[in-house]
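Following up on my earlier message about calcium ion. Here are the inputs again, as you asked, copied directly from the submission form:
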Amino acid sequence: MKITHKLSAGFIFCAGLWAYSAAVVQAAAEVPKTAFVHLFEWHWSDIATECEDFLGPKGFAAVQISPPQKSIDNAAWWSRYQPVSYQFDSRSGNREQFKDMVQRCNAAGVSIYLDAVINHMAAWNRSFPDVPYSTEDFHNCRDNIDYSNRWQVQNCDLVGLNDLKTESEYVRQKIADYMNDAISMGVAGFRIDAAKHIPATDIAAIKSKLHTLADGNPPYIFQEVIGASGEPVQPSEYTDNGGVTEFNFARTIGSAFKNGKINTLKSLNQWSGWLPSDKAVVFVTNHDDERGNAGNELTYKDQGNLYMLGHVFMLAYPYGYPKIMSGYKFNSSDDAPPSAGVHSGNACDFNGGDWVCTHEWRGVGNMVAFRNYTAAQWKVTNWWDNGSNQIAFGRGGLGFVVINRADSGTLTHTFSTGMPEGDYCNIIDGDFDSTAKTCSGETIHVDGQGNAQFSVGYQGAAAIHVGASLGGIVIPPVTGPEPEKAVRSTAMCYYDQSAGFTTPYLYYWKPVPASAMSSVAWPGVAMEKNGDFYCYDPAAEVTSVNVIFSDQGASQTEDLSASSGSCYLNGAWKSLSDCGFSLTDEPDDPQASENTRVCYDNAQNFSSPYLYFWNVAAASAVNTVAWPGVAMSADGNSYCYDFGTELSSLNVIFSDNGSGQTADLSAFSPDLCYLNGSWQDLSLCINQ
Ligand code: LM2
Ligand code: CA
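Thanks, got it. Here's what our run produced:
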């Protein structure tokens, strides 16, 4: 999310002011807003009140509202997904009430995301005079969709709903007019309903017609694409347009909380095949799935406290842009919403009413501030688990959460939290009053070593963060990423906190001049670690080149345009000096740039030293070998093997042509010389 960057700036500004004992009070405006809520079927006037009374003060970024356009007349909730016109007239309210809601929410610092039903119109004859649309504005395939057929997915009627010709200029303009009308009333974002059924290029064309917001930014859009493996239309096709729903998140945490062990969720942000974090919209469940479409997801109907714990996990874990589902109680999936709203005659379930109000549950609503205040440290730290259903983790010193999903027993443990010394409000147990700096519930003490004892009952959680400390807001120093050594002016460097790649690769094509960079196969070349950055130096001036950064081919950025001498920092191109690099005219250290060999002192006196290797990270791809690998050649007092490409890291075993052998060893450039049982700089093994 764009807002996250604003946050980092705020925290960096404060860097250096902080000391373990000193309290620094930070203006709320510097904390980003990183979570939103779906107020399903809520009335506009109730949403306006909710923005003012609850969502604004709690730090929510936005509300996804139900489709506001005129739809078929039917009590079931799903009638809202059958548009008959683009007039703002629905059972949530009329145009005036809509406008009032948007204004009041914006004034409370909460954006409105409109659920845009633009793939189709209602399931009746193909005539909507109010738009107007007539037969020629619709596709003409009424077959049941075969999901293994891309054309059918995008051109046939979805459950009988008249499928719009989104490739037509006229239709695109009508849709854009509707969305621009909303933008003119202050709407800041859109959920694109049934986006899988609209080609990504059609959405891009519609998006290009949208006006900018009052602040000059484009509207935020996120696209509902239900990923299913093996289908031709995949969520990743849509990331160029904006955010995309990541259903794997809900499915994975749901089955871990319901049937598995939640310690398996440790490295969720590195699971391959998932959308990059800055594109993924995540949720515990959504309005379709809670009605039984997805067996493994947690819903408000689950026994005990699991649904609450799922939200605590989602809001604590640094992956994606979370959406909290907040609808109404139902028995049968077609049940209509309560006719009176939360603030207009009915009430939340916990106050005896019919609305679920998940977002107001203390452990959910207060975790929004946890996510906001920890956003500058977009990583899991201080992880602990009991090998099963009790986990705890930190967020780089800005927050710490404990989740006890076990069905019996209290978890009492002293954790290393990584947090500054102080007294913090357990925001799951109590509310923090930011003016009085008091906590209505349990207080947790973090000692000078960052340790804190927690006692958390079964199916319970506890969480603390720097925005809810009894001494005021304590902000640990957050420095920007730092380079370690100078680079030449031709280098290209990369750092992205939210992407969290472990092995950054650079893929490139169409360099200008073409002679400056040799062509590479996907995923390209391994980048060399330089402090917190990773760099690749083509050693020649390149005025333009297309690039993709990837995690060794797994998660990847979109297609980017670059030049040599640039630095991609948290999603934006900067100069090398803006990333903190000093420049050198020195040619690359010849030894450092020629670490193509692995050498071995043969301390074991093998008569025929062989090198076996695997997991090779190198500038260009290295073929795998079968045991015992390749023969090494004598070079001075060592034996060496030359890979002919610059090595970054690899695993090796030296053997006597397969008989006597060393243990599995890990080597990292430039320490590629195995001397007296340890890895040393390559120059120590070979005569230069
Ligand atoms: C969505 N995302 O892609 C929404 O999240 C989902 O709630 C919508 O379906 C769907 N796409 C279309 O916008 C819901 C509901 C359907 C319902 C449709 C349209 O899940 O069951 O379909 O809205 O109202 C209903 C009937 C269905 C009938 C259809 C057409 O349930 O049986 O199909 O209307 O008359 C013959
Ligand atoms: Ca379509």
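One observation from looking it over: The chain has a mean pLDDT of 91. Hope that helps, and feel free to reply on this thread.
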